[in-house]
Amino acid sequence: MISTLFLSYPFLFILVSIHGILATVHAQRSISVGDFLSANDKNMNWQSPSGDFAFGFHPIAGKKNLFILAIWYAKIPERTIVWYANRENPATDRDSKVELTRTGHLVLKDAKDKELWRSESITNDSQVSHAAMLDTGNFVIASNNSSNIWESFKYPTDTILPTQELDADGSLLSALHETSYNKGKYQLRFDEGSLILNQIDMFTRKPYNDYFSFGTGSHSRLIFNKSGYIQIQNSNGSLLNLAPENAVPKPESNYYRATLNFYGVFTLYSYPRNPSGRESWSVLWFRPRDICRSFVDITATLGNGPCGYNSFCEAINGRPSCTCPPGFSFLDVNNPYTGCKQDYTSYPGDCKPDGSTIREDRFEFKSMSFADFPFSDYGILQPATELECRQSCLLDCSCAVAILQDPTLSADGSGTCWKKKLPLSNGWFDRDALDRTALFKVPKSNASRTNQAAPNPSNENQNQVILILSVILGTSAIFNFFFLVAVSLIFFCLYQRRLRYLDGFSSRRDLETNLRSFTYKDLEQATNRFKEELGRGAFGTVYKGELPSSYGNYVAVKKLERFAKEGENEFKTEVKVIGQTHHKNLVRLLGYCDEGENRLLVYDFMQNGTLASFLFGVLRPSWQRRLQIASGIAKGLTYLHEECNTQIIHCDIKPQNILLDDSFTAKISDFGLSKLLINNNTRTLTGIRGTKGYVAPEWFRNTPVTVKVDVYSFGVVLLEIICCRRCVEVEMEEATILTEWAYECYSEGIVAKLVENDEEARSDVVKAEMLLKVAIWCVQENPFLRPSMRTVTMMLDGAVQVPTPPCPFLVDSMI
Questions:
Q1: Exposure string over 654-685, b if 16+ CB within 10 A, otherwise e
Q2: PROSITE patterns given for it (predicted)?
Q3: Does residue 169 have an active-site annotation?
Q4: Which one of 636, 654, 726, 768 has the minimum C-beta count within 10 Å?
């Protein structure tokens, strides 16, 4: 018995040892010398023991048969890449392969055995043992003495992971853009002990000055610890926490990564380890907070900014949103971060020898409020009025744009005019921080360039042809003249007959407002004594009317009740502003009546009634038509907020105030009947306006009201368009308030429930989810979190990616 036990122990020891070795090899998923991966097998990769990370060939989105050698998160639907090798030299065929060689290198070759990339060696005094993809996201090549010959953590690209460190000589380099892994133009690095962000010149690859720095200049390394905190270690060994600031990471339930994005923002992200299938990476922390402002706050040489030359940058949730100014368009419509080009090309013949403009009448100015190009002034006028600023830029051949500071906002009451020429750099748009207006000199739409060729006196045949043609054309001109005279006489007679027909209709045109001025009797007759009521609203009752054909047949006549006893001047002022607004998505004002105590407005008649009757009728409207209507409303509000001469806050956006013409184009009505805002005065404190369910929370808090109240109301209307349900009359017990129910469906990943009886919308659930995210951004309780209507329009059109929205009911939600 004893001998049997003694004989058994060695055997057991051997078994345990073999089992341990096998277990170690299995856990580490060891890669042996000679093992290789081929791009031809998309399912072939080397995974970490837990399966969290994978190493292998990853196709480049939108590029057929182009691959990069990469490491990515393998368990989540978004296969987010965290490291890549051959960023400047992608594999171009499926027969490319990467192999672990006997020399301890990973070598990537194409089908013709051409070397595309090779790993460097940290040490050369050890023989290779194996390689492994670790659960930390680090790919290592190990030697026989257990040291690492090479590891991906020592050669980061644009991302660092928990347990990874960035030494004083290390750096992160952004990708070029979302679909390209080529070297980008932003860098995170140490410079004389300071951790900084800087832009890189794309031609020389030399760095510009930093646009953001972290802490003081005594740092030695950046540490992303395993708990999920990003820290800076000082030279004395002390640690400074950078992120997150207001949250405790939970590495047991979340993945984390910190990425220098292609647009220059260093961002910490999290993702649940057990996703339900619809999550995306959430932003926990980012720097700088406003990258657009970072490029204008410092006058040092910083580069051309996040959006390139001749463009405006507006930070939205930390990410730059790029737009082209009037008279410019994107260099690359698929990549708005590359800058803008001038639509009109000037020629040497446009300028006189003294530098002044030839035929300045060919140009006009288009203005953009809250916009500035802070650098590269070549001329400054002070003091200067707007007229002087426009005239100086108009006559100056070099001037492409003039920046005007409002004289009423300066300390001494004098305005300043800065003249700038192309290219324009570091453009900045900020409604809350800028008191300047950009005036862009653009050619008039009817301006044309005439080029006259000089005659050749030596060519007699050409002169003869010209003479013959002149005679023929002259004869034809005489004949055409008499023909036009005869036709004009006929039309004149018909016109006189029409005037006699209309002699009882006493409207006239108001030269100040360019609108028709009707008498009360005119409109009483047109509406058959106000017989057919179309609807009632906060400002009065609307009736259907019919005018003689020369006025456009059917009209909608609104009898204003709240203006009945107000002064004529105030009414005329409001009518003038409304009459000057012209947009495809606004109801057109045709005329008005201002007689005694009667105040009436005459509008175009909308054949298909209100959006409310369209959405909440018996038949459900088509999905595509609803999308078209949502986009139209957003464009109309963008015009009211940013593009018309006098900024207008509607204050009562709801389906009853959205009308539909005969082609179901959405048109906003009742605009301009609330208090109007003068330029550069974007806040007002006033009584609560609007309709229950659509009113923004700030109305009840006695806080300044801005255009963001319309954004909130639009968000509610957008939810109604998505669901075809009223915001406070949803036919479900648990969904009394539509905004709360919609966010609950979104947060629980059941977006399809919002459109469960709508087959068209269910088949386009990706678009539906995008619209829902836009709506949730719009109904944020904190107005500063709501996007501008211009941004909303770009989101709906697909020009701007819609980030994951926070809970709208928490005022201090983090982005």
A1: bbbbbbbeeebbbbbbbbbbbebbeebebebe
A2: BULB_LECTIN, PROTEIN_KINASE_ATP, PROTEIN_KINASE_DOM, PROTEIN_KINASE_ST
A3: no
A4: 726
